[in-house]
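Summary for the steering committee. One of the milestones for this cycle was to obtain a three-dimensional model of the protein with S-adenosylmethionine bound, which we needed before selecting residues for the alanine scan. The sequence and ligand used are listed below.
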Amino acid sequence: MPTNRTHEKRERSRRWLGQPQQQQPTQAVQPSFDSHSSLESSSQEPAEAQNESTAVGRHWAQVSSSWRTHHSPQYASMVVPTGNSDAPIHRWFHLKEAYSKDLLPSLLALLPNIVTNDRSLTIVDPFSGVGTTMVSAIEQLRSGKISRLRGYGLEVNPFLQFVTATKTSSALNGAAPAITTLASLVACAQKTRVAPEELPSLSTFGNERFFPREHVEQLVALRRAIDEADIGDADRNWARLALAMTVEPASRLRRDGRTLRYEDRAPLAPYEVFVRALERIAEDVPELALPSGDVQIRHGSALNPGWGVEPGAADLVLFSPPYPNNIDYTEVYKTELWALGFVANQDEFREQRQRTLRSHPSVKFRRELKYPNDARGGDVTKLIDPVIGEIPSDSRYAKSLERMIEGYADDMLTVFDAAYKALRQGGFCVYIVGNSVHGTSEAPVMIASDVMLARLGEIAGFTVESINIARTLPRRRIDSAFVRESLVVLRKEA
Ligand SMILES: C[S@@+](CC[C@H](N)C(=O)[O-])C[C@H]1O[C@@H](n2cnc3c(N)ncnc32)[C@H](O)[C@@H]1O
């Protein structure tokens, strides 16, 4: 039975959509967003979102009808991490959900007035991931395309924040790692005896199919050797990063979308992988420091007020938020979180999940909705209730999907408020997001995040400059122009 609130929303949704919708009992399906789908052929033409086959599709078409929407295939390779796994520093830790290192240079070429007349750039990424934005920005400084850089990054996952902070300080500060000393940590680790109670209590490490026991022991021994070594902070961070680069190759697990998947392969010897990772790091660290750059990467949430950025200081806020597609980053990067000691027990693990954006249903979030008590609450309701109203009430996932849509909209309005405050007049907020299909196979519910976020940005005060469809994603179970991944440009009017 739908709750009173759901029933009320469904009724409101029908009024706005102007038609009754009878849902039949249907089979529930997992939400889908496949970031590895092949590209459809695209044109440079303005995109038309007509003939949407579902009421939700028509709702998104109506919300976006006054904005410029284009097919922009030139961005297709940039919304995925093209080139990152071969590029110095970017390659230290791969995030499948990252965008390309080439995105920022392309944007700066396309929107030249992002950079001020004195060729300085103040840039913010509130969802830093593995630091693609900031490492690319530092490359712009190193190549002389900009002459001064101030960067602010936020990341809620302490392991990913550590990756970004280590990458950016290495890219800015230069200096070579003490590679011989760091490689000798292996000899210390080999002498270390690891007691069973020292092994991480995460069950994944206890499963011999995933991790041979001696590999887990070697990872723990390495961590102890790194923690106890008499070395400087920079060297310790490089060694810890090399340890993080060792975890997945030392297992039979592979990150695959929203899960860690078993793969029938021989796990690599941890000590050898660790030394190779150190060599790779040493190869990439530049010799010279860049004094004209100042980049701060904080461990914190994009939902915290202020972001640590002086109001009106930023030229560009650039990010890709978690998409509402069920990817739970705490889960996907859990082995590194535990192996490096960022999380020590299940309570800390749950707490970490609680801090993340409400883009996944892995936990019942404790945060309340803010928008119902906000003067703009009616605008948000008008945006999301027509979607919530179309969720098949007999789906097992109905309640969690409703909660996710409301929570996601609430959180992203907070993010756009903070972005608006951080930006100068005339500054840009650019984001990349993929749309996802939820609901059931007979009654799919499209969450057009590109449109939803643009409207939330508008509610926060931005002007929607353009929605650029980087790629469309072939989906058989829904015929909609909104099955796509986009780059959206918002502007704080001068
Ligand atoms: C799509 S990824 C960003 C990838 C990044 N653009 C890159 O290229 O590496 C989204 C990131 O948002 C982070 N995240 C989730 N909730 C957050 C929050 N409340 N505040 C800050 N970061 C958060 C996730 O941990 C994840 O790293």
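Key point for the committee: Residues 12-44 have pLDDT under 50 and may be disordered.
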